[in-house]
C-alpha cells in the first residue's frame, strides 16, 4: 500500500467509515476455488485451493491475499494439523476434466505452512486412493477427519460414489487392510465431522463452475460409524441421494461449496466455503467464513452478522443493554385498569420516544452501561457498523457499536470497564467482535483486552449488570441476542 | 470440485482455468491440474452390464425391500446432444420428451430384442433387472458401448397390482430430467439439472388398476452420470410392495 493510500485508509478508519459492501464475503483478494479447510499457524490463517497455492490472512481472518504455497498442483486440497505436522491432501486428475475420471488422491506433510520459514517444505507425497477412470467414482476432493487417534479421508464427486478410507495418522498412508467404503452418491467436495458421538458427512450437491448459474449447495448426513451408513435428517440414505441442506445461495452469493469446519472453542464454530459466484465481485469464485450452528444435532450454516440497528438483549435476563441515563416517561395517556376504555377523545397513534427528546439531558462525558427492561427507548437502540481498514477476525471486520443516531460508542476503559464514550474516535477500544455461537445466540468481544491471554467478553454478571468477563461456555451470561428495535 | 454435467464455458479467467468441463482440453491447464489417462487395463476390459444389471428373470418380480421397481425394458440411448444440463427447463424437457423419435414410442410395450428406428439410429430394447434400487443408465449405455452423454433413454415396465389401489403416488428420482407416464397419462415430470434422490418428485394421487398398468419413462441427460429410481408410495409415504413388475 502506498503512503497516500495508507493515510487515506487511516483517516477513514478514524472516522469509522463503513465498508462499501458490508455483506461482502471477506476483504482483500479472496479469490479461490475448492478451498481447503482453513488452517492456523503463528498468527496467520492459510487456505489452499485448486491449482497451486492459496490464500493467507494475517489480520485474524478478515482480509485475504495470495501467498500460500502448495506443490503438486491438482485440485481441491485439504489441510489438517496432527501433532507438529500439517498434512495436506490434493487430487491430481479426474473431475471430468477432458472427460476423465482417472485420478489419484495424494497426501504429504510439512512442518509449517509459512513459505518464508526455513522449515517450509512438503515431504513424502504419497498416493492413498485412486479411481481408474472407468469405475463409478472419481478420486478427487479429499478431506481429512482426525478423531480418537484415527485419521479418515473422504473423497469423490458427482461421478458415482463418494468414498471413505482410513489412513495411518503417523504416516499419512492408507492403513494396512483399509479399503475405501462407498458412503454417498453424487456428492462432491465432502468433509467429515465427528461430534457428540456422530460422524457427519457433508458434501456439495449440484453443479459447479458456471458462475452465477452454478447450483452448488452444501448438504449433510450422519452416522454412528465413520464408514456409514449415512442418512439425512429425513432418514434418506446418502447412498440414495439424500442430504439435509446446510448452506444454500443467499444474498449476493451463489453456489456455496467445499465446506470446511473451524472449531474455535466450546460453543464457537465456523465454516469456510467458496461461493461459485460473488455477484459483488464480478461473479468470481471467492472464499467465505461463516458461523456454524447446531440444531437438534445437525449442522446449520449461520450468517455473518448483518449491520443494522438493534436491541442488544441479554440471554441471561432478557434485559436490554442501555445507557445509564434517567428513564424519561413518554406522553401516552393513562391506560391503567380498564385499558382506557372510558378515556375521552379519539384513538390516535403515539409516536415512539425520539432521540431529540432525551439526548440533550444525557451527561456529556462517559456514561455507564447497564441492563434494564426493554422499553423501545433511544438509549437502548444500538447501531452496529463494520469499520473499514482496522482488520477483523474470521469472516468479519470489527464493528463499532453506537447509540442509534449518535456517536456515543460502546467502549472499554483502560482499566477494562464498560462505558459509552461521547464520540466514536475509531480507537481500538471502541471496536468489537461479534460471533454467532453454535446455538444461534451471539458473543460480543472487545478487540482490545487487558490480558490477551485471558480473553473477556460482554457478560451479564448480574441480571442488570453487564461487564467484561471470561467467556463462560454453556452459560447464558455470555450470550446475547440482537433484536430489531 | 470440478465440473460436471455443465460443459457451458465460463466467464471469469479464474474459472476458465479451473473448470475443465467434459469436452474440451486447454493446453497447460490439464497439465497443471494433473490430468491422468484412464487405467489401461480397466479401459481395455470387455464392457459389460455387470454389476448393475442382470438379464430380466421370467415372470413377475417383487420390488426391492424399499419398494423400488427393478425390472425394466430399457431402450438403447437416442442421441440428443446437450453440452450442459442447465438447458433442461420445463419447456425444453416437455417439448423434447414428447417428440416422437420412434414409432409406438408412447404406446408400445416392447419385447426384449425388439428394434426401433430413431432417425438414423437403430436401437434395441433390453429386458433387465437392476441389481440396486436404481437403474444406472450411464452404465447401461457404457456397458453396451453406446453413447453415454447427450442422450435420451426410454424405460418401460408393467406394474401388476393384485387389486385396484387408489391414492397411491409415483415417486421418482432421476439424473437428469425425466418424464413419466402411467397408463398413458403424464404423471411425474422432473425438470432442470437434477441429481438423483429417492422420492424426489412425487405424483398426485393415482389409481393403480387391478392387473397390468403400463409405466413408461424418458430420461434426458447431457454430460455426467444418468440414472433413475422409481417406486409407488401410499398416503403416508410408505412404499407399496404388494405390486409386481413384469415385462409381458
Secondary structure layout plus pairing:
The complex is a heterodimer of chains A (485) and B (248).
Chain A: H1 3-15, E1 27-28, E2 39-41, E3 44-48, E4 54-57, E5 63-68, E6 75-82, E7 85-93, E8 102-110, E9 123-132, E10 143-147, E11 150-155, E12 161-167, E13 181-185, E14 188-195, E15 198-205, E16 217-223, E17 244-247, E18 253-265, E19 268-278, E20 284-295, E21 298-301, E22 308-314, E23 320-323, H2 355-358, E24 367-372, E25 382-386, E26 392-393, E27 396-397, E28 399-403, E29 409-412, E30 418-421, E31 432-436, E32 442-446, E33 456-460, E34 466-470, E35 480-483
Parallel strand pairs in A: 1-5
Antiparallel strand pairs in A: 2-3, 3-4, 4-5, 6-7, 7-8, 8-9, 10-11, 11-12, 12-13, 14-15, 15-16, 16-17, 18-19, 19-20, 20-21, 22-25, 22-35, 23-24, 24-30, 25-28, 26-27, 29-30, 31-32, 33-34
Chain B: H1 13-18, H2 29-33, H3 40-44, E1 53-55, E2 71-79, H4 90-97, E3 115-118, E4 121-130, E5 135-136, H5 137-143, E6 151-161, E7 165-175, E8 178-182, E9 185-190, E10 201-202, E11 206-208, E12 211-221, E13 227-233, E14 244-246
Antiparallel strand pairs in B: 1-4, 2-4, 2-6, 3-4, 5-13, 6-12, 6-14, 7-10, 7-11, 7-13, 8-9, 8-12
> Biggest sheet of chain B, open or closed, and with what strands and sense?
9 strands, antiparallel
CATH architecture of the largest domain in chain A: 5 Propeller
Q: How many extended strands of chain B?
A: 14
Helix proportion of residues of chain A, in percent? under 10%
CATH homology-level superfamily of the largest domain in chain A: Glycosyl hydrolase domain, family 43
CATH class of the largest domain in chain B: Mainly Beta
Roughly how many Å apart are the termini of chain B?
Answer: 44 Å
CATH top level of the largest domain in chain A is Mainly Beta
CATH topology (level 3) name of the largest domain in chain B: Jelly Rolls
Shape of chain B: globular
Tally the helices of chain B.
5
Quickly count the domains of chain B.
Answer: 2
Biggest chain contact: A-B, 61 and 54 residues
Strand content of chain B: 35-45%
